[in-house]
Amino acid sequence: LPGRPGRPRRLGPPEPTPPAADVPRATPEEAGRRAAREALATPGFAFFEYFLTDLAGHAGDLAFAREALARLDGFLAGAVEVLRPRGGRLLLASDHGNLEDLRTRGHTRNPVPLVALGPGAASALRGARSLLDVRPLLAAWDADLASPAPRGGRL
Fold this sequence. Notes:
two-stranded antiparallel ribbon, 155 residues
């Protein structure tokens, strides 16, 4: 929760909120499958931000970090399950590190993942060295998608 005068800022896992009566809860895997199906059905580029790993790193909480990573792992497994057989594309990137060193509450300068999946992924990643390389990578993928090669969609 944001800090207010007289109240410290709370770090750690978000407070659980009661599920809305008309919104069914989903496992991380099912959420990943749903997001991938939606991305494949939508022309263009779909963006998904996952900030719980950042919150866990800032909190320095190992249990929270493990849970955040387990949820992300499940989400990605579900997304890949849908994307891979349909030729979908996935790019996973981070703008900074902090989860890998829970002793510090700030961002680190350690290398961060840049992972690509799908047609053209290996060539798209070739030469990528920083976050500045993500935009050209996406542009190259988009140009590649304009070719007549069969595809199921992209992320």
